[in-house]
């Protein structure tokens, strides 16, 4: 590539005013194998304050485009090796954001109609026949740079819109997650659980697949609140929620159903497997190392247990979602009546 020409340093008193214009500083790539013509174009456009880059053939032009990303390409049609039409085709074929982006191309030729239709069909934005009037060239260059500016502004606006849409989607997801989450335990809330229960129950009935439902209640939780205060009761509830979640599978849904009561939905889980899961949960809660720190700094260990009720489908006596939940709830109260810290399972 031919380096940019530089003017000789002039005495301070003889310096001309710096060129200026609407598009001063924009980069124009001149591609022509005729140095005299390149110089002629540079001189004609110099008063507008453009920055010029030069290339002698198509290969140099593509190298300059990759390196400098010009705002406009003024290119001769006929050059040794890779011609102007071929370069134009490559530039326009790579005009996406991952390529060169949008760069206007003005093709120039010494022949009246040669390649004009082909060049325009390949995406050339304008076409000039040599010799051309410099005023006309200047006007067309300005028009193309204006088009480039509008296109760049549109791309930036689209990027801003895309960023705004992504941020909006992220906020929407956050809001949706918050609307489905119990703030104290971080588990799903009752409303979301009931939505999922309807879906899973319908799916289990349709495909005759097993589905188990577990209701869990912390034993003597009111006594804990009355003895140690509600803040400590909240700590207990969070600890129970955390250890229960850790003993279930990722596909299982655990929610806070109300007060000290948790509820779990175990898809594709037989009564036998569900009972084993409930025992794991019960043992983990019983093994919690809880400790209350009084205002005077003294510490006291606190024991925690839970009672669990379990019901599963398919079952001849459980034909509706309400019947499944009622059966699990009855089993929960049976566990409490039998002495607490145990699991009771619905039986036909």
TrEMBL record:
CDD domains associated with the record: GGDEF
Show the catalytic activity.
Answer: 2 GTP = 3',3'-c-di-GMP + 2 diphosphate
Q: Which residues carry this modification: 4-aspartylphosphate?
A: 76
Q: Name the Enzyme Commission number(s) assigned to this protein.
A: 2.7.7.65
Compositionally biased intervals (Basic and acidic residues): 1-15
Q: Which Pfam families match?
A: GGDEF (PF00990), Response_reg (PF00072)
Q: Where is this region: Disordered?
A: 1-22
One MF term from GO for this chain? Answer: diguanylate cyclase activity
User: Where in the numbering of this chain does the Response regulatory domain appear?
Assistant: 27-145
Domain of life of the organism encoding this protein: Bacteria
User: In what residue span(s) does the GGDEF domain sit?
Assistant: 209-348
Q: Per its UniProt record, what InterPro entries does this chain match?
A: CheY-like_superfamily (IPR011006), Diguanylate_Cyclase (IPR050469), GGDEF_dom (IPR000160), Nucleotide_cyclase (IPR029787), Rev_trsase/Diguanyl_cyclase (IPR043128), Sig_transdc_resp-reg_receiver (IPR001789)
Coiled coil ranges (UniProt) are: 147-181
Swiss-Prot/TrEMBL keywords: Coiled coil, Nucleotidyltransferase, Phosphoprotein, Transferase
Check the record and name the NCBIfam families matching this protein: GGDEF
Question: What name does the UniProt record give this protein?
Answer: diguanylate cyclase
Q: Species name for this entry?
A: Hyalangium rubrum
